[in-house]
Specification:
Layout (H helix, E strand, L loop, with lengths): L9 E4 L4 H7 L5 H4 L3 H6 L4 E6 L2 H7 L5 H11 L4 E6 L12 H13 L4 E5 L6 H17 L3 E7 L8 H14 L3 E6 L6 H14 L4 E5 L6 H10 L4 E4 L13 H7 L11 H21 L12 H5 L3 H13 L6 H14 L9 H15 L8 H8 L11 H7 L18 H8 L7 H8 L1 H16 L16
Parallel strand pairs: 1-2, 1-8, 2-3, 3-4, 4-5, 5-6, 6-7, 7-8
Helix pairs in contact: 6-7, 8-9, 9-10, 14-16, 15-16, 20-21
């Protein structure tokens, strides 16, 4: 085989972000990560995904850790490999759209604290909701030479999502000035031969590198990655074996072995990967014993394929029906989901659109009349507050749910005035570093609780137990 034909596949390792987010609800503490960073850094990965997604919220809320501190510690331990994060467009890592000044400051601080690649997505694939984050990354790159804007497309199925749709949007992403594209198959719906077709088509319409991120939920991910690599994808996401499969990614070692001796050979050292797996294996056992890792998320969920609904959305729906003693309505709700999705303009089913569609479908079935009661989120989608959907929304539903209300046609963030200085004013008593303002912006209550906890740790006084009247503080 001539060297000219070699095209080693690049790999992003997800063990420090998506793998544990998917399998143990993002509960891996920083101290579990630090001892293995040196070995992870030696593998030769394209990047390590270490931050963003739910890690920010979980660090503050459950682990009582400063997410910025985690990022700085990881950066200090990883000298040669790029660090990557997941960023929800205008929502950053929170659950509402933020003003452009907050988005820009967050990008700036993420890069300053050690992030190299920012993977930016929007639940509707509305590129207007990604523009501010992409622009901020480009600006940072010009100023500091650091930063890479990767636009992630939420992969989904439906008659609107033709090959032409994907080819056209890939071209538009290139025109936006992004550095690369990611196909983000959050529900594990991308079939192997469809992936081959998709990558081949997208490669014709853009020169940007293309990365594939998929989940093992429906049992397809390894085969899908294989066909994508053969079709010319540039990077794939994998997870070291103790935290692979189930709702996570394909196993790193398996994919490395698959391409051995082919033009796609990674050249990774399996002995080094085995040492990394050995490090995480006892932690996996610990998580299984404590129940933090449920065997439910480790199998193949074929319903995901049959109903084209992400696994998390199905379990959410089951618990909603259980609460209402209406588990017998399961099949009815499953039939209602695609109808609601169609009414709302066929959005991809990813956070938060999956929760919105699922909850509305449950209401429609339980009420016995469609849209008799609509959630405030459904109303917001219909008003256009989340952005533009790929298909027009159902006018009858609009008239029933938000009769006579004005709808938004501009980029939703155009209506949000700058808010950074206001936020700063609200939390200045707790501020110990610039980044604290951003933690507060995303999760005001959770961050405030964390700041109080941090102060108590530093002063060895617990403010929540303080006898403020007599000025007595327990140590």
């Amino acid at each position: 085989m001539a060297d000219a034909a070699k095209k080693p596949i690049k790999i992003t390792e997800t063990i420090l972000r998506d793998a544990h987010q998917s399998l143990i609800a993002t509960r891996m503490p920083t101290e579990k990560m630090l001892p293995i960073l040196d070995k992870l850094d030696k593998v030769g990965y394209h990047s390590l995904e270490v931050w963003g997604g739910a890690t920010f919220d979980a660090s503050l809320r459950f682990l009582k850790e400063d997410p910025w501190d985690r990022l700085r510690k990881i950066r200090a331990g990883v000298k040669n490999t790029k660090l990557q994060m997941l960023f929800r467009g205008q929502n950053i890592l929170g659950y509402r759209p933020y003003a452009d000044d907050v988005v820009e400051y967050f990008v700036q601080k993420s890069i300053a604290n050690g992030i190299d690649i920012i993977r930016i997505f929007d639940c509707l694939n509305d590129l207007r909701n990604l523009q501010a984050a992409v622009d901020a990354t480009i600006k940072e790159k010009k100023q500091s030479g650091k930063g890479h804007a990767q636009v992630a497309l939420s992969y989904t199925l439906g008659d609107a999502y033709t090959l032409d749709y994907w080819m056209n949007i890939a071209k538009r992403i290139e025109e936006m000035g992004a550095d690369s594209i990611c196909i983000k198959d959050m529900a594990g719906l991308l079939l192997p031969y469809t992936a081959q077709e998709l990558i081949t088509a997208m490669k014709k319409s853009t020169k940007l590198p293309i990365q594939l991120h998929t989940h093992y939920t429906a049992g397809l991910a390894s085969m899908t990655c294989l066909k994508a690599v053969e079709a010319g994808v540039d990077v794939i996401d994998t997870a070291i074996s103790p935290f692979a499969l189930g709702t996570s990614q394909p196993a790193t070692e398996v994919m490395v072995e698959t391409f051995k001796g082919t033009p796609y050979d990674t050249g990774f050292d399996q002995n080094l990967l085995a040492e990394i797996a050995d490090y995480f294996r006892p932690y996996r056992e610990e998580c299984l014993e404590s129940g933090l890792m449920s065997t439910k998320v480790l199998g193949v969920n074929i319903k995901t394929l049959l109903y084209q609904v992400p696994g998390g959305m199905l379990s959410n729906m089951v618990s909603q029906l259980k609460e209402q003693n209406a588990e017998d309505k399961y099949e009815d709700v499953l039939k209602e989901i695609p109808k609601v999705r169609e009414d709302l303009g066929q959005p991809p089913l990813v956070t938060p659109s999956s929760q919105i569609v699922g909850t509305q479908a449950v209401f429609n079935v339980l009420m016995g009349e469609r849209y008799k009661m609509a959630t405030k989120e459904t109303k917001a989608v219909l008003r256009g507050e989340y952005g533009q959907t790929v298909k027009p929304m159902n006018q009858e539903v609009i008239d029933k749910v938000i009769p006579g209300e004005k709808r938004i046609t501009c980029r939703p963030a155009d209506l949000i005035p700058n808010e950074l200085s206001t936020l700063e004013g609200e939390m200045k008593q707790y501020k110990q570093q610039d980044e604290d303002v951003l933690s507060y912006a995303l999760f005001p209550q959770v961050a405030t609780d964390f700041f109080k906890y941090r102060e108590a740790q530093q002063t060895k006084m617990d403010a929540s137990k303080a006898d403020t009247e007599n000025g007595a503080y327990p140590v």
